[in-house]
Design brief:
With about 400 residues, the protein is an alpha/beta fold. It has two domains: about 220 residues, Rossmann fold, CATH 3.40.50.720; about 120 residues, no CATH class. It has ten helices and 14 strands. It has an eight-stranded mixed sheet with strand order 3-2-1-4-5-6-7-8, sandwiched between helices. Strands 9, 10, 11, 12, 13 and 14 form a six-stranded mixed sheet that branches. α2 packs parallel to α3 and α2 packs across α8. It starts with about 25 loop residues before the first helix and ends with a helix. The structure holds zinc ion (2 copies).
Length: about 400
């Protein structure tokens, strides 16, 4: 589509030069919301670029705090920021860089604590991660709701940039080798995994590699926002030692576990994680699908811990993957406890009056419902205003 050139005054418009770019639409850029996951070396560079371009709304996710070792590769951090959350500092600094930008910090574990609906309601998703587990999570979330995402990876002077788009070429999980799975499984070998270990990916790299890869990632995000062509399922490989840059296409795996879409998603503007009970959501599932419909969870919910030794029972209501290993030990007698688990709600549960938040669902979650072969997915859309409010 031909664009009307709008040439503004360079003295009063910081986006003046963008007006000369034939396809650039500052209005589209201004109204866009981008989710940036990871505020480390890549995240700093991506956020800096997005802010300079005037991307209107940035949702920044990370679980980590700043230490001195980050300062050599993080343009948004200062020495005085030591010990502060990366997301809080990053959100402050992008607003300094460009006051037009609304930035929101989200501190948490991307694998379990961000509602799936968030992925539906943003215009682009950029992964700035240093571990396979988080990439795999984002990949599955994006597949579930049919959204593209931009991945970046750096090691020493090497870099990779990839766009993954459900049903358009290979996805991230299609690219995983047996060795990758082995590395992931090693860390998951304990049923209550030691998440501390999992979250410590320390990758040797340089600020130059981060700038190069993050620049390409930002450009891919910019193309997605403008609805321009990208090449999903291919990798841009950058070798900073030999200065070789080339593209390579991944084969699609036939039985890739990520290839699972939620299908039709029902938006429920009245439903929120804190305000809606399991009983109310089950009623909605039955309105949608008919009597006898059940709610189904993707991961096991630990309802309670039972100690066979001393008879102690503790209600837990947390997803199993979010518990630390010491949760298995009885605080009264030190014996190993048994977990009471569930992943299906059929209406017979004694805890139906709990809200979704009280059984460990984050705001803007999407919960699956099923009756025989018929299924749908229910979104807690009432949380959208709060989770994605930038003003
Ligand atoms: Zn795949
Ligand atoms: Zn006990």
């Amino acid at each position: 589509m031909e664009k009307t050139l709008v040439i503004t005054d360079p003295d009063s418009d910081r986006y003046h030069t963008f007006g000369y770019i034939s396809w650039w639409q500052q209005e589209v850029v201004r109204n866009a919301t981008v989710l940036v996951i990871g505020a480390g070396a890549l995240g700093n560079e991506v956020l800096k670029n997005l802010a300079l371009m005037g991307i209107g709304n940035l949702l920044i996710g990370d679980f980590d705090t700043i230490e001195d070792a980050n300062l050599s590769r993080s343009v948004l951090f200062r020495q005085s920021d030591r010990g502060r959350r990366k997301v809080d500092v990053a959100a402050e600094r992008v607003k300094e860089l460009n006051p037009d930008v609304h930035a929101k910090a989200w501190h948490g574990d991307i694998n379990y604590e961000l509602g799936l609906g968030v992925f539906r309601h943003v215009d682009a998703i950029v992964g700035c991660l240093d571990n396979r587990e988080a990439r795999l999570s984002i990949n599955r979330f994006c597949w579930a709701v049919g959204r593209p995402w931009v991945d970046g990876a750096i090691q020493e002077l090497m870099g990779i940039v990839r766009v993954f788009w459900p049903d358009k070429g290979a996805c991230y999980e299609c690219t995983l080798t047996d060795a990758d799975y082995q590395a992931i499984n090693l860390r998951y070998s304990c049923p209550l995994l030691a998440r501390e270990n999992l979250l410590q990916g320390k990758v040797p790299t340089t600020p130059t590699s981060a700038s190069i890869v993050a620049a390409f990632q930002t450009q891919e995000a910019l193309k997605l926002i403008h609805g321009m062509e990208v090449n999903p399922g291919t990798a841009l490989m950058i070798n900073g030692l030999t200065n070789d840059i080339y593209n390579t296409e991944y084969p699609v795996k036939d039985f890739c576990l990520s290839h699972s879409s939620l299908g039709s998603i029902v938006e429920l503007p009245w439903a929120t994680a804190c305000g809606t009970t399991l009983a109310e959501l089950l009623d909605e599932a039955r309105r949608q699908l008919g009597d006898g419909a059940v709610l189904e969870f993707d991961s096991e919910l630990v309802v309670a811990m039972h100690c066979a030794n001393c008879g102690n029972v503790e209600h837990v209501f947390q997803r199993m993957a979010r518990l630390y290993e010491n949760a298995a030990v009885c605080p009264h007698c030190g014996a190993r406890r048994d977990m009471e688990l569930t992943h299906r709600i059929d209406g017979s549960e004694p805890f139906l009056r709990r809200t979704l938040a009280e059984i460990d669902f984050p705001p803007l979650s999407i919960v699956k419902a099923r009756l025989g072969k018929a299924r749908c997915a229910l979104e807690l859309t009432g949380d959208k205003e709060r989770v994605l409010a930038f003003h």
